[in-house]
Design goal:
Helix content: 40-55%
Strand content: 15-25%
Number of strands: 8
Bound molecules: pyridoxal-5'-phosphate
Order of helices and strands: HEHEHEHEHEHEHEHEH
Number of helices: 9
Strand order of the largest sheet: 7-6-5-4-3-2-1-8
Structural class: alpha/beta
Shape: globular
Distance between the termini: 23 Å
Largest sheet: 8 strands, parallel
Radius of gyration: 17 Å
Length: about 220
């Protein structure tokens, strides 16, 4: 699918559910993609990207930022505490805040650096052992803890289990956000972004549908 086609589909899903055009932002997930594919999307005028790894983003985006200084890059993948400083220096937002130790580290670094990226708390809505994220039952307390640390919590994020209907997970994430008065919802990927938009996503994270399949070889 082209970038224009995906954008049109997002707008249609917004329209169908009575949401304003542009209510859901498209994060183009450029992890593992070759630079020429990323550059093609930049040349089309797109400016919001997502990466999974600090190291990979650090190797890729400084050069692109010289040509496209208004680009925004969000971290979507898990963040190790010892990479928090570097992540805070290169990303405009982090979608994977999921534990007290990381929250405390980011709060300390924010004071030292004088700035902090926007933060999304990842919720493990499917309660999967192998997946990052705070459990749904622990979400309210963790949100409160992050707010007590004065962290800029702008949203919640989830990655539904591969085998389940994602809408149930999107609805659960929205419910947790609503009762905590959180506006941002980072949910929806290539296979389900329209369903996510219909359920209130403010950020959809779409990779392969834009760039083509990732070649991990
Ligand atoms: C890779 C990834 C995406 C994009 O997945 P696609 O299926 O290629 O759209 C979205 N979110 C996260 C957290 C990812 O790791």
């Amino acid at each position: 699918m082209s970038l224009a086609e995906i954008t049109a589909r997002i707008h249609l899903a917004e329209d169908h559910t009575g949401r304003r055009t542009g209510a859901a932002q498209l994060i183009a997930v450029s992890k593992v993609q070759p630079n020429d594919r990323v550059e093609a999307v930049l040349k089309e005028g797109h400016r919001l990207f997502g990466e999974n790894k600090v190291q990979e983003a650090a190797g890729k985006w400084p050069a692109f930022r010289e040509t496209y200084p208004d680009v925004h890059v969000h971290l979507l993948g898990p963040l190790q505490t010892n990479k928090a400083r570097q992540a805070m220096e290169i990303f405009e937002a982090i979608h994977s805040l999921d534990r007290p130790k990381l929250a405390k580290t980011i709060a300390r670094l924010a004071e030292e650096l004088g700035h902090c990226p926007n933060l999304f708390i990842q919720v493990n809505t499917g309660e999967e052992d192998q997946k990052a994220g705070v459990l749904p039952a622990d979400a309210d307390a963790f949100i409160a803890e992050c707010r007590a640390l004065k962290l800029p919590i702008v949203g919640l994020m989830c990655i539904p289990p591969a085998e389940e209907e994602p809408s149930l997970h999107f609805a659960l994430l929205r419910k947790i956000a609503q009762r905590n008065d959180i506006k941002g919802l980072s949910m929806g990927m290539s296979g389900d972004f329209e369903r996510a938009v219909a359920l209130g996503a403010t950020h959809v994270r779409v990779g392969s549908a834009i760039f083509g399949a990732r070649d991990y070889g």
